[in-house]
Every structure is written in C-alpha cells, then in structure tokens.
Amino acid sequence: MMRHKNKTNRVTRLGLAVAVCTMTATSSQAWTIPTIDPTAIARLAEQSQTLRNQLSSLTDMKKLAEDQLSVLGEFGVMGDIFGSSGFASIGSQAEFYENLKKFAFDPCAINLCQIGENPVGTTNIEEAMAWARTNFYTSEPLNNEEMRDLQEVRRRSVVYATTNGMALATVVHNELAGAGSEADALEQIVSASQNLRGDVRANSAIALATYKIEVEKLAILTAMLNIEATNAMQSTDIYHENGGTEFPDAFMDGDFTGGDFTRRTKVTMPKKNDGVPAASSDQ
Question: Does residue 278 form part of some domain?
C-alpha cells in the first residue's frame, strides 16, 4: 500500500547521506539490536573527503598528462610501448574507468523509484540527505503493511551496498593481479626515454598510473562507507522528524505463506520505475 502526500524532497554523497541520517536518528530500540560505532563512519567519511581533494588535483595532472602525450605524439619505440596492453590498463580508455560508470548510485535499485523524487547521479549533499531520510525513515506511525514495505526498502539497501562492495572488491582484486604488467610498461617507458621529450612522456604515464590508484582508493572507501552506513541504519529506529510519509510497494505479500510472513515460497520482483536526472551538479 502507498500513502500519498506532497512529494518531499544528486552520488558519491548518497552513502554519506545515509551515514549522516543514521547518526541523527533516534534509537529507541538500540538495546535489542547491536549498535555500530558512528566514529567508524565519520572516519571513513573524513578519509573519503581527503581522497576527493587529492583526486581533484590529480584530475588536473591527468588532463595535463594526456594533453602532453597527445602533443608529443606516439611514434618509434616508445609509441610501441604506449600501445602495449600494460599501458592500455593505465590510460584514460582503460576498462577500469568504464567499470566505474556502472558504479554510480542507483536509487531505483533500493526504493524501486515508485514514489517521491529519485535524482539519478546527484552530487548535491542536501538532495542526497533528503532522499535518504525520506526513504529509510518515517515521520509518522505506520500500519503493518507500510512497516513491511519500509523494512523491505531498508533490506534492499543493505543488499545493494554489500553486492556493490563485493563487485568492486573483485574488480580491484583482479586489477592488482595485473599490476605487474602495468609496472613493466612504466619501466619500459622510463628506460626508453633518451631525451627531454621522452622524460615528459614518461612522467605523464606515471601521473596517469598514480591517478588510477587514487581513483581505486576512493572507490573502495566509498563502498566501505556505503556498507557501514546501511548497516548502522539497520540498528536505528525507523522514526525521524524529517522522515518520509509514503513508501513503495516493496514487500511482496504473495511470496509468503501463512499470516506471519516467515515462510517464503517464491521471490517476485516488485514494480520498478526509472529515476529522474538530477536537477543540478552543485556541490
């Protein structure tokens, strides 16, 4: 059942928003559920912001490195090296960056985008916080059916954060397995340098490799923050003064037998809609 009311209410920040909302929610039943130290979340958030600041500077370095490589051209021995598979995993066209495009936060995977505003790709912290508050908390008492829907949205958020984290860990794990070929490619580039042109190109290649490492670190921290935040959310009470007033039909009653909904007999995918583009990219 959905309760309709005026709509209230962009993602690196959605995970952080969940963390902030979690720490401000009232935990009236904390004695029944293990609590999670909020300092761990705060520490991850601080580390994530530090890496974001570093990444901003490295992004400028990356652009300069790519421009230098383009201006200097790729020919001769070093051209062959830059075209090798080892360097291909470092440059901007590397599969790793294509994978990151799939790492963008998908609100519809959690609340099914059935109700409210669901800004896809938001980088606006206030917008992200409002989304988290109104989807994971309620501002008024719920009946049993509404309670099951809210708890199912919360459960879906944990599954989403966990599987995202595992997927990212798998990709980075396999990237590390190929680190030797990347190191060999960089070593060949440095060794092949015979003049200033070669030195500049070697430095540019190293800058690109450094940038990739920092992006990987930030991605890992983001996944960790999402997991910590959603787990902490599960240990807090469902009520918040700025919580939501309507929730999606997420819990499929027909998947269970009996009146207590403890025995599942099938798994049905709830109706899922598309989100809307974020209104702005303001930080």
Answer: no
Q: What is the pLDDT of residues 20-57, one digit of tens each?
A: 444 444 444 443 444 556 676 667 767 766 766 666 66
Phi (first) and psi of residue 252, to 5 degrees = -95, 95
Helix (H, G, I), strand (E, B) or coil at 263: strand
Q: How many domains does the chain have?
A: 1
Q: Could you say which DSSP state residue 239 is in?
A: B
Place of tokens 């206030």: 126
Which residues constitute the domain of residue 81?
Answer: 12-271
- How does pLDDT run across 134-162, given as a tens digit for each residue? 999 999 999 999 999 999 999 999 999 99
Asked whether residue 281 is domain-assigned, the answer is no
pTM for the model stands at 0.65
**pLDDT by residue (tens digit) across 229-266?**
999 998 899 999 999 999 999 999 999 987 788 889 99
